[in-house]
């Protein structure tokens, strides 16, 4: 059976299609010695979509070594590093990793075309491995809102990255629909029309800033002793400058769970976020369409990448079940019904 074509990508995908770094454990240990003066007792690989990451155990503690895809410009990696440092300096209570400088005081090293950084390890349990609950959603949402607030004044002299994962560009997903499985195509197209009608025309006039843009369960860590407490926010690799409502929509897309109302669990998140970083009326009005925009962005991009990278398909499609279920739960609601419900929670 001939595989379906993945379709024409809506963006330049050099970072996503570049060759993933392939450093061995021995090479990683040598990099740690050379650039950080760190003797690692052990290094073990961590999952990644396009980069190479290692858990590092040394006498001084535990770290994460991140080796960027060689197709990622050093300026983009540096932008992420600067954002992490800015958050730590602006609000030290926001649980982000810290950059570990090299022996020469640099934020990164360079080897075989890749930018390499060492970051502190954040203890805890990944969110997707916990049972969840209202208190947990509220804790994560409050921490997310503090992160947004901490990044409010963050700026860059370089043009902001343009990523296909930024849901403000969701209309361009039309170019990738031929990669979507037939059983999802109708739902994706319906959600896309809602984005075009109810969100896209309003985005230009909404507050923009740099945001994390990937607050999904694999990038959030909670306290092992109290899983209702946020203990870490990971991976700034998809950071963009976009409306804050888009960033909130990304997070909420992973919290659409069965309940007495299709948006009941989302409302936990939105209300806690709004309490820290208040949402305007227009941000609240566009949120239902932006949540679905993230859901279909995930479906379209991962469908294409699973076709072109079948060896990594299980990792690429890891969020498909929760995203598919959430989209099917939201689509029967009208725009007015969804907005009225969120207003009743936040206003």
Description of the structure:
- With 347 residues, the protein is an alpha+beta fold.
- Helix content is 42%, strand content 14%.
- The chain folds into two domains: 14-122, Phosphorylase Kinase, domain 1; 126-346, Aminoglycoside phosphotransferase (APH), C-terminal lobe (Aminoglycoside 3'-phosphotransferase, Chain: A, domain 2, Alpha-Beta Complex).
- It has helices at residues 14-17, 25-36, 74-90, 134-150, 182-199, 244-252, 264-276, 281-308, 313-316, 320-330, 335-346, and strands spanning 40-46, 52-58, 61-67, 99-100, 109-111, 114-120, 125-126, 208-211, 220-222, 230-233, 240-243.
- It starts with 13 loop residues before the first helix and ends with a helix.
| Percent of residues in beta strands | 5-15%
What series of H and E elements makes up the topology? Answer: HHEEEHEEEEHHEEEEHHHHHH
Number of folding domains?
2
- CATH architectural group of the largest domain: Alpha-Beta Complex
CATH class of the largest domain: Alpha Beta
- Say what oligomer this is: single chain
Distance separating the two termini: 54 Å
Per the CATH scheme, the topology name of the largest domain is: Aminoglycoside 3'-phosphotransferase, Chain: A, domain 2
Rounded to an integer in angstroms, the radius of gyration calculated over CA atoms is: 20 Å
Class derived from helix and strand content: alpha+beta
* Mass-distribution shape: globular
The CATH homologous superfamily of the largest domain is called: Aminoglycoside phosphotransferase (APH), C-terminal lobe
Low-confidence stretches: 1-12
The total count of strands amounts to: 11
Q: Average pLDDT across residues?
A: 92
For the sheet with most strands, the description reads: 6 strands, antiparallel
